[in-house]
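Much of what follows relies on a compact textual record of a protein's fold. Here is one such record, which you should read through line by line:
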Amino acid sequence: MASTNNKKPDKGNGSHSKGLTSRIGGFLNYDFCPWANLYVYWLKQPIGWVVCGIFASLLVGLMIGPQGFILMWAFTGLLALGAIWPLLAIKGISCQLSFTKSRSAEGELTTAILEVSNHWPLPIFGLMIVGDFLQDILEENDEIAIGLQRIPPRTVSKFKWSINPEKRGLLPVARPQIKNGFPFGFYHAVKEVSVKGRTIIWPRNLDLSGVPEVAGSQFNISGIMSDRPGVDGDMIGVREYRQGDSLRHIHWAKTAQRDRLIVQERQSFASCPFDVYLDLNPAVHSGRASQSSYEWAIRIAGSICRQLHLHHAQLSLHGIGLPAGLPYRVGNHNGLAPVLDFLAMLPSLDELELRGETTPSRAITTEGGRKTLIIATSQSQNFPTSPDVHQIVIDTRRFEDSANDFQRSVDTDSPSSTSTMPPSRQRVEVSHPLTLESELSTGWEKGICNGN
């Protein structure tokens, strides 16, 4: 009986060949003469080789025969055509960019419309639109360009893009440009695109439910429900009839049981103003770009202001640590839009660090009849504590220094390894960008709103 030996394949030869290929590739791509880059980098462009062809043809014409001059003039004409054609093409077009929404939010689809008018009797090829509104890759600073198809003669062509903005702010920040390098790419003619209204990108909304309990004595026709006796909301008890009570509030079952008029007591609307303080001092934040604790704090502030506004609460938002000269306070007297516009237009963390301006932090004042909500980090200064002061604290230790590091933390860290401190009525902690939304929702509902 023949026996067979099952041997594992030898992986040594494969790894050796891969290592050899890697070394050869490194040798071929090694820059042996970095000092010469300044003089030869222009050869990477097509125009560099055309210039070399013109010079070589001139030498042939001078030293060998007149045929070289024919090649020289042919290359010269090619160079002139490659430079003049894009200029003529770009002179005959006009472009306008518009958006379907004046306001949007992070992660919310919006549509950009580009209208290109061709005034020439010939079609135009090779147009590219360049602009920061094409922010599909949010962390890249490289120029983003999209090629356009053929523009028919004497027509207006419309192009639409569905944009999913991933960072707050103004869209577009800079005016887009239309470029054309057709037919050879020697030279790119550039023309600015007129923008018909920009879009403000609000911070992403985090789902919250409920509002903090209101125990104030200020009544209003609308606001947050309070358990003080009134004529709105849910029933909170019964009492004997008083002169002037409405017959609609009579509890007929209790009236029949006690043989006297009994009326229902219901909740009332209470107007308790809220002061929301947002610590924006760059020294207390960590991380970069959209996953920094700075951006998450702005999202938390916007979500809380939206939730309070939906329950008809008066609020005032204060930014702590902003440089002098920038607006630092806004309210919802004219609706929620000014509050979210204020958050959307706040400078980025990098911009604040580049300014390098140090301003004294504005004091947090707690007034009677007002509730205070503070959004800070674990590195923030000590804030006042009282029954009417609630803190939402971001633990900055779990926020990475870049988007790439954050992506690596998604693969290596366990999202469940977060703070185990239970939420309280005065303090809620969120500790990881992956679970921040769920931690905030739980802490807001079970801690700040219910006091569990």
The CA atoms of residues 94 and 117 lie 5 Å apart.
